[in-house]
Design brief:
Length: about 220
């Protein structure tokens, strides 16, 4: 390994040990290729990661202009990093589309996080399922601002009746990252439950989704 340049060592490490052996900084250093005269590609990657709290989700939010503000990151390198982040997001979204049956609240989180977990505004979605918890439909019911959305209960159950659903799972995101049900969240849940009882469509759960975690009304006993 001593015969390799500092910038090439992560590549050799991947060849010898596989990609899982590399740190986030080492993987990013492979993307950017080279550092500067005073900083290796790994050190540059560590500095970028440090500035986003070592959070890859935060890194994915950086614009091209924000990335090129780092010395050693030109437009081509910034585009490469952004492209890699977008591929990772699309991979998560593709994996979520393969999920056709809900067995737990965690399954709902895996399905919805790529869609709403990283948004800067709030969205309200509904999963429609049959008696076997197979997903019949997945619909964005509303889209709002930073603090809330307006939910049309009549539209929600119209869609449920049309697809023959026997159950619904409510989902919305909290851009603030707060995993706490507000009074408005509880009210819409109660309203949906009451409407569903009259139509024999059960509200099975309501999830609040954030970037990295979720709160399930059913799991918490507040449904």
């Amino acid at each position: 390994m001593r015969f390799w340049s500092e910038d090439d060592r992560p590549r050799e490490k991947m060849i010898l040990k596989g990609r899982s052996a590399l740190s986030d900084a080492e993987l990013i250093s492979i993307l950017i290729g080279s550092g500067t005269r005073t900083e290796t590609s790994v050190d540059l990657s560590k500095r970028i990661l440090s500035n986003v709290g070592n959070n890859l989700n935060e890194l994915s939010r950086l614009s091209l202009s924000q990335l090129t503000a780092y010395k050693g990151i030109g437009e081509a390198k910034a585009v490469t990093i952004s492209a890699a982040m977008e591929l990772a997001r699309r991979k998560r979204e593709s994996e979520s589309r393969e999920l056709s049956k809900i067995n737990s609240s965690h399954d709902v989180f895996l399905l919805m996080q790529p869609l709403i977990g990283e948004l800067g505004h709030e969205e309200f979605w509904i999963l429609y399922v049959n008696n076997a918890n197979k997903i019949l439909n997945k619909t964005q019911l509303s889209k709002g601002g930073m603090t809330g959305t307006v939910v049309d209960v009549r539209l929600a159950f119209k869609i449920g009746l049309q697809c023959g659903a026997t159950g619904v799972i409510l989902c919305h995101n909290h851009p603030s990252g707060t995993l706490k049900a507000s009074e408005a969240d509880r009210q819409i849940t109660r309203k949906m439950k009451l409407a569903g009882e009259n139509l024999d469509i059960k509200v099975l759960d309501h999830l609040i989704v954030t970037e990295t975690a979720y709160l399930s009304f059913a799991d918490e006993g507040i449904l």
